[in-house]
Amino acid sequence: MDSTEHEDELGAISTQFQIPMWVKLLTSFIGLTLLGFCVGYIWFFLNSEPRLPSPKDLSITSLFIFSISSLIIVWVPWANLGVKITKIGGIEFKDIVEEQASEHAEEISDLIDRIELLESQIRQSDSLISFVEQADEPELRKELLRFLQAYSQWSFSPSRIKAWGSKQAGFTSLGKYETSFIRLTLQKMVAEDILVTRISKKGNTLYRVPQA
Which of 20, 35, 50, 147 is the most exposed place for a label (fewest CB within 10 A)? Predict the structure, then answer.
């Protein structure tokens, strides 16, 4: 993006500045009330005997000018007149926009770095889990087949094998495997016709050795 486009964007931001209608109405109410008070006080001052305190002493003139100015500020269509509000109290809108853009760019860059780090850690974790599972699968297959043969009169879900089966004598090693790993191994054994399945009343898949 060149400097011309950048200036155009800043110009669009400044010219789109609009005073909300509720601010206009509230300011108008306050301004007209103050104007009415100023005019009324001056009228009473000119017609009172003895004289009231001078409007100058009460800063009535300043209050009158402030009221008129506030009404002009909120109701004059500055955007239609081509006036751009780019500075308030010595602070340039351009500087603010550029500073915010720089901060957002740094935040986005930092967020991207964190996402990439997390993705890298996840890939490493998945690779490690896959390696461990591949190494343990032959032993798990052996234990699952031995367990299902020992309790061939029943069918078991993977979670039941881990929760109940691992507490039975001779099968405590089943407790060290994750349920998802047990399920995946059982599914492979079904695909190889080593095991068969059935569906429970609750809709769960149960595994068992084929009946002779």
Answer: 50
Is there a domain that residue 99 lies in?
no
Q: Is the pTM of this model over 0.85?
A: no
Nearest to 80 by CA among 5, 27, 10, 17: 17
Q: Could you report the per-residue pLDDT of 96-147, keeping only the tens digit for each?
A: 556 666 666 677 777 777 777 777 766 666 655 554 555 568 888 899 999 9
Asked if the model's pLDDT at residue 74 lies above 80, the reply is: no
CATH number of 169's domain: 1.10.10
Domain count of the fold of the chain? 2
In whole angstroms, give the CA distance from residue 133 to residue 184. 10
Element (H, E) at 150: helix 93-150
Displacement of CA 92 from its chain's centroid (Å):
30
**What is the distance between the alpha carbons of residues 148 and 209, in angstroms, rounded to a whole number?**
6
Query: N- to C-terminal Cα distance for the chain?
Result: 77
List all residues 6 or more positions away from 146 whose beta carbon is below 8 Å from its beta carbon: 171
Beta carbons within 8 Å of 63's beta carbon, 6+ residues apart: 34, 37, 38
Please indicate, yes or no, if residue 85 is contained in any of the structural domains: no
Residue 150 belongs to some domain of the structure = yes
Q: Which of 78, 93, 118 is the last residue of a domain?
A: 78
Domain that holds residue 190: 136-208
